[in-house]
Specification:
- By secondary structure, this protein is α/β, with parallel strands linked by helices.
- The protein contains 7 helices and 13 strands.
- The chain has helices spanning 15-29, 51-58, 77-80, 131-142, 157-169, 214-223, 266-269; strands at residues 4-10, 12-13, 35-39, 64-66, 102-106, 112-119, 148-153, 174-178, 188-190, 194-197, 202-205, 236-247, 253-264.
- The strands form 2 sheets. Strands 1, 2, 3, 4, 11, 12 and 13 form a 7-stranded mixed beta sheet that branches.
- A hairpin with a 3-residue loop joins strand 9 (188-190) and strand 10 (194-197).
- Residues 41, 68-70, 153, 179 line the site of one fe (ii) ion (FE2).
- One fe (ii) ion is lined by residues 12, 41-42, 68, 179, 181.
Length: 270
Amino acid sequence: MSEKTKILFLGDIVGRPGRHGVRKFLEKNGSGYDFIIANVENASHGYGLTRRNYEEISSFGIDAMTSGNHIWDRKEIFEYINDADKLIRPLNFPEGAPGVGSGVFKTEKGFLIGVINILGVVFMSPLIPPWELLKKEIEKLKEKTPVIILDCHAEATAEKMSCGYIAAKQGASAVIGTHTHVQTADETLLKNTTAYITDAGFCGSQRSVIGMDVDTSVERLVKALPVRLEVGPMDRVQINGVEFVVDCKTGHAESIVRINEVLNLKEEVS
Ligand SMILES: [Fe+2]
Ligand SMILES: [Fe+2]
């Protein structure tokens, strides 16, 4: 049996256009992957994740979900996160926060995949720096599997790149940046073992400001008022992410390829 596993990581799913587009994308391409991870921090109208949307996204065939600074945006998250087996919140919240910062999942072929999520601390709301916690968490998961995928949810490019090298040194198989929603073109194999990209991008409305409606985004910026942001239109949806192959015996990544597809959903929404 081949010991390679092909993993898909989808950038932040934003609102209904993102959910709908990801469903369509996976209907066509999902069977080509052994394991699928998506960042879901913006999946419910741009803010957080309702239980209903958690279940909906689960049903698309997504195996693990990571998140970020928007994880607590929906009050109901506190009621269901401890039962949501696929959902991980950032590791570096203070002790006592509900949910977990990592998980170990089993693929259909029987391989174990460790997934960790951290929040950056540069240009973000104050939080415990994740570096010591991350080191311990990688060591802990390494006792179960050599395959460790890290979602580094952060604002600053330099912080994400540094995070890539930190986690590569500790033996992570992949470090995928999220949060800025714009896909970077710097995918690479760090140390020849760790798949890396500074930002995976986002899945959602293409004619938008990082997934949100252009007019309300511009109004909010220009007026400097807390204008309620709407999600962008449904007609053209972009799917951003990366796919990478990992040797399950060594935990080393062997390739990383960007995904940047635009789905024309006009006929379906008119
Ligand atoms: Fe996001
Ligand atoms: Fe974020």
